[in-house]
Design a protein that fits this description.
Elements lengths: L7 E7 L12 E6 L5 H8 L18 E6 L3 E7 L7 H6 L4
Parallel strand pairs: 2-4
Antiparallel strand pairs: 1-3, 3-4
Length: about 100
């Protein structure tokens, strides 16, 4: 599957799994600790200056952020602690 990273749009921020997008597409998940540069990496990867907000204060992000990438996949970013609250991510992490 070819993914066009230049064709990307922000979908939503979800604080709860019930607010996550429901469409079934392959997901690319970027998980990391607070203030490690996830947003900066997203901006670089998607070749956009501010598609992902870069926080000035560490620990500010509490939501999982979803981006449409090339109409073929979803890019999801979240803090490590979010894994415990999202069942499908929990399964992928081997914590079922």
């Amino acid at each position: 599957m070819n993914i066009n990273f230049n064709d990307a749009n922000f979908i939503t921020s979800a604080y709860d799994v019930r607010n996550a997008p429901t469409e079934r597409r392959p997901e690319i998940v970027m998980v990391g600790r607070s203030n490690v540069g996830k947003s900066s990496m997203i901006n670089k990867l998607l070749n956009r200056k501010s598609i992902a907000k870069v926080s000035e204060k560490p620990g500010k992000t509490a939501a999982a952020n979803y981006y449409d990438v090339g109409k073929k996949s979803i890019l999801l970013t979240c803090r490590v602690t979010a894994l415990r609250s999202v069942p499908r991510l929990k399964d992928a992490a081997g914590e079922a």
